[in-house]
Amino acid sequence: MNVIRDIKIPGAIAIYVEPGRMLLEAITEIANEIKNGVVISGIGTLKSCKLHCITGTSFPPAEEFINLEDEPLELVSLQGIIADGKPHLHAVVSRGFKQNYSGHLEDSSEVLYLAEILLIPFENKKLTRRLNPELGVSVLQEAD
Question: For 13-142, CATH number?
Answer without folding.
Answer: 3.30.1330.80
